[in-house]
Amino acid sequence: MASALSVITLSIFLCFCSLNLSIDAQTSFRPRALVLPVQKDAATLQYVTKVSQRTPTVSINVVLDLGGRFLWVDCDNNYVSSTYRPVRCRTSQCSLAGSDSCGNCTDAPKPGCNTNVCGVFPENPIIRTSTSGEVAQDVLILTSTDGSNPGRPVTVPQFIFACGPTFLLQGLASGTVGMAGLARNRIALPSQLASAFSFHRKFAICLSGSTNSPGVLFFGDGPYNLLPNIDASSSLTYTRLLINPVSTAGVFSQGEKSDEYFIGVKSIRVNNKPVSLNTTLLSFDSNGVGGTKISTVNPYTVLESSIFKAVTEAFITESAARNISRVAGVAPFEVCFSSQNVASTRLGPAVPQIDLVLQNSNVVWSIFGSNSMVYVNDNVLCLGFVDGGSNPRTSIVIGGHQLEDNLLQFDLATSRLGFSSSLLGSRTTCANFNFTSVA
Ligand SMILES: *[C@@H]1O[C@H](CO)[C@@H](O)[C@H](O)[C@H]1NC(C)=O
Ligand SMILES: *[C@@H]1O[C@H](CO)[C@@H](O)[C@H](O)[C@H]1NC(C)=O
Ligand SMILES: *[C@@H]1O[C@H](CO)[C@@H](O)[C@H](O)[C@H]1NC(C)=O
Ligand SMILES: *[C@@H]1O[C@H](CO)[C@@H](O)[C@H](O)[C@H]1NC(C)=O
Question: What angle do CA 404, 406, 408 make, to 5 degrees?
């Protein structure tokens, strides 16, 4: 592995050198971090980001997948690029992609269809479908940042990604052509970009709930400055990222660990009162079942049935004590309330606070009204959690609505998550990055 890695680094380095001959100023610049906008799609509630790829350069929209293992794009439709290169079998890039598979496509050669190519399994978790796809390299262009504004564009000449077929786009936000995986493995965007630019293997997401103003994704370390001049990286609480010993991917080989991000929720409190839970469900069993993960492809937090029941019962009781009355559920939510008697606060509707207690009772991810509640109309607001049934693979999946306006920084080198809790308490939001370029 070590020697494979150094070969990769070398080839990227060589490529930089040859580019240097023509555009010296641009390529000798080394960014300390990169920034991407992340726009919530109103129809699907997916988070969509934009990158530039190929020669000539095209801008593509892809759905963000925190647990995804790489960038995959539809190569069957409209993939035109003079710099596209399939990754051959048994090369260092192929082992970096975690693959030892070798395939031949029998149709006429084109992007996504070549012979002697390294294969992986691009996955669309929205429709729970994986299929085989060719590993390839092409130019990827991103935007650097000083932490406050977008700066000049930077290029990764041979970014490794996978080709998917057009049908794998089913269920994805309109106008998107693939998914951008941010998982912990080597060819996911965080590690590949960190090694291309020699910065820390850290990245941060700050999702906006607005379907008009984008949130932000940073690769590299902070500052992550949000208007009015608040460094969201300065007030993080840290917890360990846990490794699920059994892969959660659609297709994987025996013995493979999960590349997704799990944290150790030990208990849950509603209005500061512990909820009685079957704690066995909070850790992994020998098949990797159980535990808590973070997901950007689930719009709302999904709780295993008995946890859902316990948390919602506690929430209903505590709400009743505040004279907040329950009304009929509105799908997909079962627990809804009249908005009468619900005051508005800086942190959203004034409802009982839900705390995810982590390694000890002082390390708490607090969920306030803006992250727990969803207004379905002016008169009704619902608890934005859904029932995941009785035998889900993962007991707690913290979903998009609960992540919005929270900064989450993932440090892959130390396997640590930094989380801010609601930035609304610091008088800013994830839509407050200043996207005016200073390039
Ligand atoms: C793919 O085709 C090459 C010749 O082009 C052949 O040598 C190789 O064995 C084939 N591989 C598979 C897996 O069929
Ligand atoms: C707790 O959950 C585990 C795992 O699903 C199950 O085997 C066990 O029976 C549960 N315990 C109780 C008391 O329900
Ligand atoms: C709830 O309503 C009752 C009766 O109207 C009132 O006595 C009580 O003070 C209210 N409680 C709160 C927390 O507002
Ligand atoms: C955003 O950044 C630009 C460029 O630095 C600056 O001119 C502008 O004042 C900033 N906007 C706000 C609201 O601070």
Answer: 115
